């Protein structure tokens, strides 16, 4: 059973969405604000978030963007903001779908199923990736470039996987440091990260493919082919 978190301050609306998701076979929880949502997300176990934009303690766009830089979980915006520029901001923040109020709750359920289906399919394929002149198999920790095997260190593979799991998303240097080393309680400074990044880029890049773009003053972005 998939677990859906509804982040919505309108309790009547949230309870209605929760009821319909439950009837459709999902397990749903409700967070009335971003502070509660952040705590619930950190507890883990959520397969998808339904996120309002206008919340009492912040902006859903910023919450989604920060979340997608650290967590691999699909997000559907459910909001009254129906302007094109709002939808563009939503997708730029990492949304997998964008639904405007008022809405048909049965259509919402179907779109939840569609997003989860695409996500499951993509996750199954993510262990083996082909992009540009690279063939990457994360399960066996092998990478081929133009058919020839490259030698990557475990840390370089961790970096590569983090980028491949977050295509198009700017990963800050702090996020990369926390992902790779803080979880193991090993301290590595930013200078060491720069060295690892340089080595990885030198191995996978060539004149035709750069793969990783530097976002000066912020971090790095996987641009794929």
UniProtKB/TrEMBL annotation:
<feature type="modified residue" description="4-aspartylphosphate">
    <location>
        <position position="52"/>
    </location>
</feature>
<feature type="DNA-binding region" description="OmpR/PhoB-type">
    <location>
        <begin position="126"/>
        <end position="224"/>
    </location>
</feature>
<keyword id="KW-0902">Two-component regulatory system</keyword>
<feature type="domain" description="OmpR/PhoB-type">
    <location>
        <begin position="126"/>
        <end position="224"/>
    </location>
</feature>
<keyword id="KW-0597">Phosphoprotein</keyword>
<dbReference type="InterPro" id="IPR011006">
    <property type="entry name" value="CheY-like_superfamily"/>
</dbReference>
<keyword id="KW-0805">Transcription regulation</keyword>
<dbReference type="InterPro" id="IPR001867">
    <property type="entry name" value="OmpR/PhoB-type_DNA-bd"/>
</dbReference>
<keyword id="KW-0238">DNA-binding</keyword>
<feature type="domain" description="Response regulatory">
    <location>
        <begin position="3"/>
        <end position="116"/>
    </location>
</feature>
<dbReference type="Pfam" id="PF00486">
    <property type="entry name" value="Trans_reg_C"/>
</dbReference>
<comment type="function">
    <text>May play the central regulatory role in sporulation. It may be an element of the effector pathway responsible for the activation of sporulation genes in response to nutritional stress. Spo0A may act in concert with spo0H (a sigma factor) to control the expression of some genes that are critical to the sporulation process.</text>
</comment>
<dbReference type="InterPro" id="IPR016032">
    <property type="entry name" value="Sig_transdc_resp-reg_C-effctor"/>
</dbReference>
<dbReference type="InterPro" id="IPR039420">
    <property type="entry name" value="WalR-like"/>
</dbReference>
<dbReference type="InterPro" id="IPR036388">
    <property type="entry name" value="WH-like_DNA-bd_sf"/>
</dbReference>
<dbReference type="InterPro" id="IPR001789">
    <property type="entry name" value="Sig_transdc_resp-reg_receiver"/>
</dbReference>
<protein>
    <recommendedName>
        <fullName>Stage 0 sporulation protein A homolog</fullName>
    </recommendedName>
</protein>
<keyword id="KW-0804">Transcription</keyword>
<dbReference type="Pfam" id="PF00072">
    <property type="entry name" value="Response_reg"/>
</dbReference>
């Amino acid at each position: 059973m998939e677990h859906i978190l509804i982040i919505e301050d309108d309790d009547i609306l949230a309870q209605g969405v929760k009821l319909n998701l439950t009837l459709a076979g999902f397990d749903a929880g409700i967070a009335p604000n971003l502070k509660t949502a952040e705590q619930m997300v950190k507890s883990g176990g959520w397969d998808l978030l339904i996120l309002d934009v206008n919340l009492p303690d912040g902006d859903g766009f910023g919450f989604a963007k920060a979340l997608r830089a650290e967590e691999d979980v699909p997000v559907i915006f459910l909001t009254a903001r129906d302007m094109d520029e709002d939808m563009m901001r939503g997708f730029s923040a990492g949304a997998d779908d964008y639904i405007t109020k008022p809405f048909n709750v049965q259509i919402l359920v179907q779109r939840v199923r569609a997003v989860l289906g695409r996500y499951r399919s993509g996750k199954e394929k993510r262990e083996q990736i082909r992009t540009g002149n690279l063939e990457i198999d994360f399960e066996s920790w092998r990478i081929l470039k133009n058919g020839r095997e490259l030698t990557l260190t475990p840390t370089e593979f961790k970096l590569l996987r983090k980028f491949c799991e977050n295509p198009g998303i700017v990963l800050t240097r702090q996020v990369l440091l926390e992902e790779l080393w803080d979880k193991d309680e090993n301290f590595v400074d930013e200078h060491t990260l720069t060295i690892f990044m340089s080595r990885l880029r030198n191995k996978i890049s060539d004149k035709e493919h750069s793969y990783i773009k530097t976002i000066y003053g912020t971090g790095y972005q996987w641009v794929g082919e």
